[in-house]
Amino acid sequence: MKRIKFVIGLLTLLAIVLMISCTRETPAPEPNEPPDEDISKVEIPAPENMIIDPADWEEKFPLVYTSFMKTSTMGDDTAEDSGLGGSQPLDYIEKYPNIKILYEGIGFAKEYYQARGHFYALEDVANISRPKGGASCLACKTAEYEKLYAKFGDELASMDFQKTIQEVEFGITCYTCHRNTPGESIQTTTVHFNEFADMLKLDPIPGNKACAQCHVEYYFDEENNSVLLPWGNGTEIAEIEEYYDEMDFSDWVHPRTGTPLIKVQHPETEMYTGSLHASMKVSCADCHMPRVIEDGKEYKSHWVTSPLKTPNESCGRCHSNEIDTLPERVEAIQTEIEQMEVDVSDMLVKLIIDFGKAIEDKKLTDQQIVQLRDLHRKAQYRWDFVFVENSTGFHNRAKATEALNEAKSYAQEALDILQGL
Ligand code: HEC
Ligand code: HEC
Ligand code: HEC
Ligand code: HEC
After folding, report:
1. Coil, strand or helix: which one is 68?
2. 388 close to ligand 3 (CB < 6 Angstrom)
3. Closest ligand by atom to 32 CA
4. CA–CA gap between residue 231 and residue 224 (Å, rounded)
5. How confident is the model at residue 276 (pLDDT cuts 50, 70, 90)?
6. Which helix (H) or strand (E) holds 291?
7. What dihedral do alpha carbons 316, 319, 324, 327 form, nearest 10°?
8. 302, 322, 342: which is the final residue of a domain?
9. Which residue from 317, 421, 341 is spatially nearest to 389, judged by alpha carbons?
């Protein structure tokens, strides 16, 4: 406690010194103060007035703009990220060959690369050859989705992807998180997030909700292909599973075992919720978009990337006395979680192969098949939740560990049944 008070004292002093010694590109708001306006009362500009091109803000916010454009350099492998949760170009299938079997039957078994910077969002979705259900895939790739939605309404989600992308020029831009108000407020623009936030009465702090627009688990509406969030029962791993179970949902059926499976997608928000850092009200933006000083000017970095590239700015206000060893602490967590991921995936591969073979050899009763599919679904869902969460466990070590332990025991139970045949 004493140490924390001391740190707070030091920080206040530092903040005062900073305020005196450097000019700001923008006045700094209180960190994480919720915005005054009610989400539902925010006015959406008419399509012709939407300021989508980030270059339109360059003159007013030159430093923010330049930092934002740096998301295009994320593939640079000289960068100091961890190599596990960072942004080096990485082919997951080459690195984790087990996923060829775990994801058999869907595109991820054939093509799956690590995410790149926001600059590439539109380009990458255009180039990936995995089949796309419709234009709703653009919801998290372009600031122009709200404009398209104003034009086409609910039809948009199921419109042809390739045709619709021809109408789009920009990827993620200032508009995505600010509409026409950079420097004044965070406004969320992804249609699905706004609907769910209204419906579930969620209003996360600005530095979290800007990211929760996209860095969440989602699924597509079977009827009209729109993006939906499985949050009806809550955002914990088991609550999301329960929600999917209740609606009998599956993304695909595994060709060897007949198991209806859930394919999880980048659940950073859900993983981070309830973590140690979240309990201290540290937001995604606090770590990934720190305040930085350049040529005596302070601004909020918009180079959204691995915080290990900016440990002083991202973490220094609390970890200043161990800043040099902090990246190692992060990597130690990631290495531990990665090893657990690999171990569980080995078990799942064995489960899938043995289960598939037992079905083929007609060794199982109907009841055993139902039971084994249930165990397979539960185990793979938990493994996937941690595997596709992009921090490799750092965002919430406790939650990641618990999920992998549960995955392990479900997989073991299934392996024991198969062993006993
Ligand atoms: C306490 C600081 C902290 C907070 C808060 C935080 N992150 Fe992270 N995040 C990290 C670290 C550290 C990594 C691992 C970086 C590495 O391995 O190089 C990471 C990794 C990531 C990655 C993988 C990509 C990359 O370049 O490393 C994504 C995506 C991400 N975080 C998004 C989010 C989102 C969304 C939130 C909020 C829900 C969030 N983060 C909250 C520190 C944080
Ligand atoms: C991915 C979401 C996102 C995008 C894209 C984005 N911003 Fe921001 N911006 C934020 C967040 C989050 C904050 C901090 C808000 C807070 O914590 O209250 C912020 C803060 C700001 C601020 C206030 C800075 C300060 O010192 O407090 C300015 C100015 C700004 N953004 C301009 C821009 C401009 C210009 C662009 C496009 C070139 C842009 N933003 C793109 C999320 C975004
Ligand atoms: C409009 C949707 C959207 C919003 C809003 C958004 N992201 Fe992203 N983010 C993406 C997509 C899509 C990618 C992957 C881009 C690619 O691979 O081409 C990505 C990639 C990233 C990466 C790089 C991943 C890597 O491994 O290098 C980080 C870090 C990240 N986002 C963090 C954040 C944070 C923090 C916020 C909030 C301040 C945020 N994002 C807001 C869609 C979004
Ligand atoms: C608001 C203060 C605050 C900020 C900002 C913050 N941390 Fe922490 N962090 C803590 C506290 C307090 C703990 C618990 C004590 C400890 O383990 O040092 C902690 C714990 C950790 C741990 C151990 C977690 C575990 O599960 O064992 C790591 C690693 C870590 N932080 C890394 C980071 C990194 C990297 C950043 C910046 C990207 C960061 N922290 C930003 C306060 C903060």
Report:
1. helix
2. no
3. 2
4. 19
5. very high
6. strand 291-294
7. -100
8. 322
9. 341
Q: What radius of gyration do the chain's Cα atoms show? A: 23
Is 285 a pocket residue for ligand 3 (Cβ < 6 Å)? Answer: yes
Q: Which atom of ligand 4 is nearest to the CA of 310?
A: 38
Say if ligand 4 is within 6 A of residue 281 CB. Answer: no
Confidence check: pLDDT of 20 > 50: no
Which CATH number goes with the domain that contains 361?
1.20.140.10
**Domain shared by 338 and 231, yes or no:** no
- Please report where in the chains the tokens 């995505």 appear, as a residue: 176
Q: Please choose from 10, 11, 272, 276 the residue to mutate so as to test ligand 4's pocket, defined by most ligand atoms within 8 A of CB.
A: 276
Instruction: Provide the pLDDT confidence category of residue 6 given band limits of 50, 70 and 90.
Output: very low
In a domain, 306, yes or no: yes
130 and 169 share one domain:
yes
211 lines ligand 4 (CB under 6 A): no
The owner of tokens 């740096």 is 70
- Identity (one letter) of the amino acid at 398? A
In-domain check, residue 6: no
Domain of 421, in residue numbers: 325-421
Cα–Cα distance, 376 to 389 (Å, whole number)? 20
3-state class (DSSP) for residue 1: coil
Q: Whose CA is nearest to atom 41 of ligand 2?
A: 174
Q: Residue 108: which residues within 8 A CB-CB, separation 6 or more?
A: 99, 130, 263
Q: What confidence score (pLDDT) does residue 91 get?
A: 83
Asked if residue 95 is part of any domain, the answer here is no
- 202: which DSSP letter? -
Give the residue from 171, 168, 226 showing the smallest Cα distance to 195.
Answer: 226
- Written as six digits, the tokens of 4 are 């924390």
**What b/e string do you get for 17-33 counting C-beta neighbours within 10 Å, with b at 16 or more?**
eeeeeeeebeeeeeeee
- pLDDT-derived band at 88, boundaries 50, 70, 90: low
Domain shared by 374 and 290, yes or no = no
Ligand 2 pocket (Cβ < 6 Å) reads 26, 28-29, 54, 57, 61, 64-65, 68, 172-174, 176-178, 182-183, 186, 206-207, 210, 285, 289, 299-300, 302
